[in-house]
What does this fold into?
Amino acid sequence: MKINIYFPFTDGPFGGGNQFLKALRSYFRKLSVYEENPVNADIILFNSHHNIGKLVKLKKKYPEKIFIHRIDGPVFFIRKDNVFLDKLIYTFNDKIADASVFQSNWSKQKNLELGIKNKQFETIILNSPNPDIFNTKGKIRFDKNRKPKIIASSWAANMNKGFNTYQFLDENLNFSKYEMTFCGNSPVKFQNIKHIKPLQSKKLAEILKEHDIYITASKSDPCSNALIEAMHCGLPAIGLNDGGHPEIIGKGGLIFNNKNEIPGIINKIKIDYKKYTENINLPNMNETGNNYFNFINTVFQQKKETDKLNVLDIFKIDLQILRYKILRKIQKKKQI
It folds into this structure.
């Protein structure tokens, strides 16, 4: 059984999906089950809405291949004008995908609420980072006698990534008691928070290990890769009570509902820092990769006959793709 991850990989700092799938690809390569050329693969693992047009063509040409869909979102909760993209993803999942992988229970439930259909083969698998990079080796020791060092990060400069909260902290956090860093792209110009531009993964891990507490205020984030990377570096986390944050953080940090709660939460973690670090409990890449491999293998072994492609279904998907492209062009023109 050979697996291809059909995704437009980008080197260097980029979004969470890109970073996770690179780590998963490395895991499959170590198992000697990865196939670089999708034409020679038995399994096509693809991500959300990326390359839907090309994937439809690939499915039409090779209907015997098994297509496994790593589902994101819902996109609607992040970009309100993109409900049609979710509908396109759901149609594609129903008609083309043989199996579905959700990144968190929250993501699965929200997608079901918006209309995605259950499939015979589906599972929930949390993300994991590259263990050679994101680990606790070299992390600075926490010292209650110095200022706690807080850090947030985001590749995307979307305000829904928590920037209203980070701006609030920039204006209201007592910087005589705390230090705070933001790493990534930001639409906000900080006055007190130290801003570091996006970094390569190795350098980002080094910066994370220089800090004590990670914070994320991103909204409707199904499975934040940035949060997971930080916690794998040994940082207890503070997260907005939304998306997949509560599932990821567990007892390895605390959740907030209102940004005014954050200073008090920082102090709670400071007081019981060791307890929170010891309670970080996330799957490593070996566990996550093994979960993907076992699920894929189960689908491969049980799905002896691939469902026949319906010409009308393919036409409907092609029509939806065209309609989506037209709508996006209209939206971009309105923004100009």
User: Anything to note?
Assistant: The radius of gyration is 21 Å.
